[in-house]
Write a structure and sequence with these properties.
With 177 residues, this protein is mainly α. The chain has one domain. Helices cover 50% and strands 11% of the residues. The chain contains five helices and two strands; from the N terminus they run ααααββα. The chain has helices at 4-17, 22-30, 51-68, 72-90, 148-176; strands spanning 104-113, 123-132. The protein is globular and about 65 Å long. It starts with a helix and ends with a helix. The protein binds zinc ion. Zinc ion binds at residues 35-36, 45, 49, 85, 89. Residues 35-36, 45, 49, 85, 89 line the site of zinc ion.
Length: 177
């Protein structure tokens, strides 16, 4: 299960790399947190952690915005950030990614353990977990909004973006003189 900070930072960095305006990218990346807004309803990793549900909502919106020729790009960007949430959650956890077509939680665990000096004992592990999806409510819920590793990854993802802003502003100021 990915932490909230990474759910924001990863799509923000992706949108920045794609050349999306940073303010727009910031706001759109916040929407990557939406699938976790099932927690106030006392359920988690529920309907909005489904690829089918997200596409059932976003595809008509994309088609409507395309027809209206308004906000089409925005609806595609929101779809991308919502899907990034599923990708981050499916690794290290499990989500009902194909619900309601398949009422199963799917998760992927990967790791490569390094053994020294018996390097030949090092091998990658890829496990795909499939288990029945049970949407039951909880009384209390604990999850990290951020962790040390997440903060480090976020800093490394966002630092080049901030550096580029600083360099661009510096160049603009230099050009004025
Ligand atoms: Zn989630």
């Amino acid at each position: 299960m990915a932490e909230s900070l990474l759910h924001f930072a990863v799509p923000f960095a992706i949108l920045a790399i794609l050349g999306i305006n940073l303010k727009k990218g910031f706001v759109v990346s916040l929407m990557a947190l939406l699938p976790d807004f099932d927690i106030p309803l006392y359920v988690h990793r529920c309907y909005f952690h489904s690829l089918i549900m997200i596409m059932a909502i976003m595809l008509p919106i994309i088609l409507i915005t395309k027809r209206m020729r308004r906000c089409e790009d925005l609806s595609i960007l929101i779809t991308i950030v919502l899907l990034s949430h599923l990708v981050l959650d499916i690794f290290g956890g499990s989500i009902p990614v194909f619900w309601p077509i398949l009422n199963m939680n799917v998760g992927v665990d990967t790791q490569l353990l390094f053994h020294y000096p018996q390097i030949s004992n090092s091998y990658p592990q890829i496990q795909i977990h499939i288990e029945p999806a049970v949407f039951k409510s909880f009384q209390t819920f604990d999850a990290p909004l951020f962790t040390s590793g997440g903060v480090a990854v976020t800093a490394l993802l966002i630092a080049p973006v901030l550096a580029k802003i600083f360099i661009d502003r510096f160049k603009k100021q230099q050009a004025k003189f």
